Amino acid sequence: MTDEKVDFNEISYEDILAPYACTGAHSRGRLKAEPEVASRSCYQRDRDRIIHSSAFRRLKHKTQVFVYHEGDHFRTRLTHSLEVAQISRSICRSLHLNEDLGEALALAHDLGHPPFGHAGEAVINDCMKNYGGFDHNAQAIRLVTRLEQRYAAFEGLNLTWETLEGMAKHNGPLIDGPMKGTKEISDLPFGVSDYVQEHDLLLHTYPAAEAQIAALADDIAYSSHDLDDGLRADLFDVDELKSIPIVAQLIDEVRWTYKEASKTVFIHELVRRLINRLVNDLMIETRRRLGELNPQRPDDIRFAGKPIVAFSPEMQKAVVSLKKFLKNRMYNHYLVNRMASKAKRVVSDLFELYISEPECLPTEWSDRATRPNTAETARVVADFIAGMTDRYAFREHAKLFDLSRVTL
């Protein structure tokens, strides 16, 4: 009997994935066909295009919870996206799914957020209520399909179908059934509604498993790391977290194991253990659901009729309790509310000025907004403001509304 030698150079990374993982060989491709390259998979190229985009760089100075100047150690949209990517990548690898796609989706998930977080989004949406509204998820699609101008052959980043699908419906189906006319499209948020008219993303199904993982990696990251930031900012203390069962248990574990730990080390250990507990529960529950479904291809996940990647029911209750605590004690804290109030005024003032006087926009934007107070100009203004960082929005506001400034 002779031993067969395996040439590992002939085995690609995607050859060892689960049969229900997304692979480049079975991708639905890009809207504008491009030749693929041997050195990188199509999802690696998506990830790299996202990282090199202008929208991704701007996340460095966009609010997660605290506005950019409130402390160097608090999280921004950029650091949050990197943390989500790490968690998504790790879970995908453990479940034999495509970690390149999971990473690309995690890095892209916050691209559409305007300055000042949810406070900024609420104001833009209110300003746009008569012009089609504003939704940060749809804006992310708009950015990667329309607004990023980097390539001569196409507008946007020309990402793969699977990446766009995951971005559009990472929280689940957007419509009840296959699109049969314009009504379903008109009910969708702008950014998705205009794009799917030329590129069907199967909005009536769940996304692939990698997108479901990226979505829950976001939940894990922002819940645990906002808790971290809130503790470090002294918005609440550790003992107040004992109302949340899973966190109370971890607090007791850390106190028993590390009796002499400093506050900084204690917080880090608590958050680390919380992330581990959430990730492990998600993988156990997801493996259970995969065993029941026995999927043999990615579409089996899409058409399962329910999420396949999920927390256990007990852990889901704990996550809801943690989110409720953070909303009451952190997101609605008066110090956060004060900055949010200021941010709302900045965004509102800028929008009203730009839509009525589009000639005040930078030239490349004013050229697209020639008529004041129209739907077309409103969308250009929304795109422009949504792309601002926190500090740029503050600077623009000062330039335009501080009458004592003599330079612009």
UniProtKB/TrEMBL annotation:
Domain of life: Bacteria
Signal peptide: none
GO molecular function, one term: dGTPase activity
A GO BP annotation: dGTP catabolic process
Pfam families in the cross-refs: HD, HD_assoc
UniProt entry keywords in alphabetical sequence: Hydrolase
SMART domains per UniProt: HDc (SM00471)
CDD domains noted in UniProt: HDc
Domain HD residue range list: 77-223
Parts forming coiled coils: none
Protein family (similarity comment): Belongs to the dGTPase family. Type 2 subfamily.
Protein's name in the database: Deoxyguanosinetriphosphate triphosphohydrolase-like protein
Protein species of origin: Temperatibacter marinus
